Amino acid sequence: MASNASVWGIEVGQTALKALRCEIDGGEVVANAFDYIEYPKILSHPEADPEELVRDALQTFLERNETRGYRVAVSVPGQSGLSKFFKPPPVEAKKVGDIVRYEARQQIPFDLDDVVWDFQMMPGSTIEEGYALETEVGLFAMKRDQVYKQLKPFDTAELEVDLIQLAPIAMYNMLAYDRMNDRLEANDFDVENPPTSTVMVSLGTDSTDLIISNGFRVWQRSMPLGGNHFTRQLTKDLKMTFAKAEHLKRNTRDAEDPKLIIQTMRPVFNDLVTEIQRSIGFFQSIHKEATIDKLLLTGNTVKLPGLGPYLGKNLGYTLEVLDGFQRLQGPEVLSSPVFKENQYTFGVCYGLCLQALGLGPIETTLVPKEILTDRIIRAKKPWALACAAALMAGFVGHYLFVQRDWSVVREERWSSAISQSAQPQSYATTHKSTDSDYISKLAYLKNVGQELSGNGERRLIWIEFLTMLDGLMPHHPDYQSPSQYPSPLELPYSKRPDIYIDSIETQYFDDLSEWYTDTIAERYRLEMRNWFRITRREQATEEQRAQFEEELMALTGPEGPGWVVELKGFHYYNDIIGQEAGNHVRKYLTENFLNGAVNIPLTDSNNLITPETFTTKEMGISYPLLLNDPGLEEVKIPNPEYEGAPAGQGGGMMAGAMMGGGGQASTNVFGEVEVAPKDKAAADDGPKQPPSFEAKKYAVTFQFCWQPKSRSLRLQLRAEAEAEAAALAEEEAAAMESEEPANEI
């Protein structure tokens, strides 16, 4: 909120000390005093003593003007500090400070303890429901020793400074309030389509500040070119003293040959245009959405003949010279000849006053915190002393009253009663301690019991998982298990539909969407189309096919924590065209994992184990996927029944086949598999055993997602679904009953 007290805005320039005092009167900013004190020499002149010149100017200022009771705001040159603007990610508004602190460590090339810094969210920033969304943060910093150096003349003059601001930021405050206030009050800022920006060039003595702003956002750069560079160019080319060149520059129109002077300063004109063009070009490279429509010039160097038109012509923007302030009132100040003569230089003072009055968009200050703390303590010292005196008086009175009471009721008169009262207290304390121990033990036992009872279902998860895998594996309906197959001579491997699993690998994901990449998603859609073609093509209508394709394209993949399980194995069922290789996997394995069901043993209330059928969806199975289609491989399978077969060949399947064929398998002392027929006649009359069998082998790599559900959760979800279905059936029945009388009529 704006203050109603007057404030001083002071700029210690290179050629003069400028000060402006403003207040708020009737909602308007009114200037009620000013001062312009020019130094005998420019501060950057080799023969000048800057500290002495500034000290004398401040002393003159204090002699002319009243400062007691007024807030004082001063500016520091833009090149003395750092100003950075960045966009933090969308976060809670209360966490913006943490992000700015991290950004400060990255952007400020000094230890933060050696720097005075402050930050602020810029106008137009969006905060919704406590979150900072489309925001831009301004970070401002200055080395601590530089701050104290700037404050030293004011400390010497015993003038307390309440606010320190960078000169370009003060100019932005002036520009935003004086020329762009309507758009700021409307607060209608579109990041993608911002309002037009204005380039303000503040021409100083040794440097030039360039500020580009649309009111909501600001970008600034200090360029090492100023009025002194014109003077030095004259001293260099015309071979004259600095003082004479400065006088000639200020009075160019009255010179004998003004054209010669302008031509002499032409290189500096060109350098200034080049620097401004480079700065604007860099700004537009990082703010491509910005458009610039105006060039605003300020500073006493603007008085140089031909400078304004030259800049406007070469930069290609509409030129405007800041020769007045549109929203500043105060006819006595504004009509003063001295103010009118130097009004180009009072933009910084005006901006400082606006910030001190609470009207500037940027409210940061570079006054060290320790100085503000010392002032607060100093201001409160009288009150603290008064409070201490009052407390001391209260303590003395309290002591006197207590002393009087103690003289009547002495401790020795109550010592025996106090001793007796301590015994029940000790007794009660002992029992409370014992009771607390029992409560702690009871809580521990409860926790142990909960852990033991709660782990019951979790221990069964993987057992149920393996039971589910076994139940989903495809088997030929004519055979119960591979161990009951006859010899390969009677049933070739190519007739056996079983899929043999070599390994099972699992990987846990905190979010299964990490597994469901674009490659996996494309592969899954292709596999689902193949599965639909193999299992549903004949009975599906065109409408069903279209609906399936629409649902397939709408899949977004699994979400949430879970496991990805990979099965690796093979099968030999590859003789029937159209049902071989991957089609066999899709027809049985993919179908089972999509729409299959398994029997999981459950224990009822009577401790009887009964199987309960659960679908794969109820078990948490989803997204079954034949990961690749490698094609068929011609292999030779060693025959373990062949006499003299090498040791170690064959496997559990082959041994099972032998056992199923009626022979007895054993291993001799050399590790070789020996097969003994039931009798000699069987060995002699049986078909001759070949050394190996030729088969077509298809390698299977199959993946699916598994999000485990405890059996209590499965039963709960099933009960809820049945209850919902029952309620829906009742509603449909009630609706049908209500329609029957109408049908009878």
From TrEMBL:
This is Competence protein A. NCBIfam families: pilM. It holds the Pfam family PilM_2. It comes from Rosistilla oblonga. PANTHER family: CELL DIVISION PROTEIN FTSA-RELATED (PTHR32432), ETHANOLAMINE UTILIZATION PROTEIN EUTJ (PTHR32432:SF3). Coiled coil: none annotated.
